[in-house]
Amino acid sequence: MNGSASKGSARTGLALGAALVWAVLGATASAALPRDASGEPGTAAAARERACPVVYFDLGETLVHTAADGSTGYRPGAASYLRALRERRVPVGLITNVPPSWGTTDAERAARLRKEVDATWRGPAPFAWKDFGGRVLTPRTEAERKPAPALWRRAKAGSGRCRVVYQAETAEEVRAASSLGFVPYQVGRPHRPEFLPVRLVERLGRPAPS
Questions:
Q1: pTM of the full structure
Q2: For 71, which of 8, 43, 135, 203 is 20 to 30 Å away at the CA?
Q3: Could you tell me which Gene3D superfamilies the record lists for this protein (predicted)?
């Protein structure tokens, strides 16, 4: 394939990818709008109450990469993406499989996860654990391990009336989250943004035009 054809194909792929993102986002956001007693979308005030998107991620091979030598570090673009969400005060969380034996609570299992990741971390800046606060959800039993729905349901329940995004590298997890009402995005796909663009995340916090 010659250079001009290759560039044209890449541009076409990017355009199709962007169109797909907007289509998925629009459909999911519309479905997520509050509805009144008649089943119709609620008022702008109700829509504003539904604002405040929360963005959940898988961890391994979504935000961090484990190299062949066992070291871990940010995946390309992950650190800057988290920083952009932080600057816009968008809450973020993790939904990740770890051994249930790592603790009796999410906090204990999250502390063990942090210890494991930090022990092998390589890079100019540490992983941004503080961004996630108490929103690190891990399986309490083997039966709760993804792709079982338990962790996504817990994330939804803990997010109030906010719209909730889930980003991961596997199609299976993205489909599972979508089926439970999350705005889904599969990261690392060719000819598409590495992560769901921040400007689209921000749109989830705006009322739909009347």
A1: 0.78
A2: 135
A3: HAD superfamily/HAD-like
